[in-house]
Amino acid sequence: MIGDCPQDLEGARQAGAGFIAAAYGYGLPPGKCKEEGIPYVLSPRDIPVEVGRTKSRILEFGFSFWHY
């Protein structure tokens, strides 16, 4: 799931889904994402790149360690 606010993050946690923060908004700034270890993007064009990285990590490690 991709979201831009704490409510989106909580929804992903409740659903057991992975989450990437859209940190170019106001709700989940990069500093907070870094502190909490949340994958994030700074631009909409970065979303496919981060999804690809995350997919590679899942394939490499056999599980999704970015689930919250």
Explain how this protein is built.
It comes from Methanomethylophilus alvi. This is Phosphoglycolate phosphatase. This protein has 68 residues and is mainly α. It has helices at residues 6-15, 30-36, 47-61; strands at 2-3, 20-22, 40-41. It has one domain (2-61). Helix content is 47%, strand content 10%. Strands 1-2-3 form a three-stranded parallel β-sheet, sandwiched between helices. Mean pLDDT is 83; it is low at 63-68.
Compute the gyration radius: what is it?
11 Å
Structural class per helix/strand content?
Answer: mainly alpha
Number of domains: 1
Shape: globular
Helix segment tally: 3
- Number-wise, the strands total 3
Query: If you average the pLDDT, what whole number results?
Result: 83
Q: Give the low-pLDDT segments.
A: 63-68
Strand order of the largest sheet: 1-2-3
User: What does the main sheet amount to?
Assistant: 3 strands, parallel
Q: Tell me what portion of residues adopts beta-strand conformation.
A: 5-15%
The helix content, as a percent range, equals 40-55%
String of helices and strands: EHEHEH
Roughly how many Å apart are the termini? Answer: 11 Å
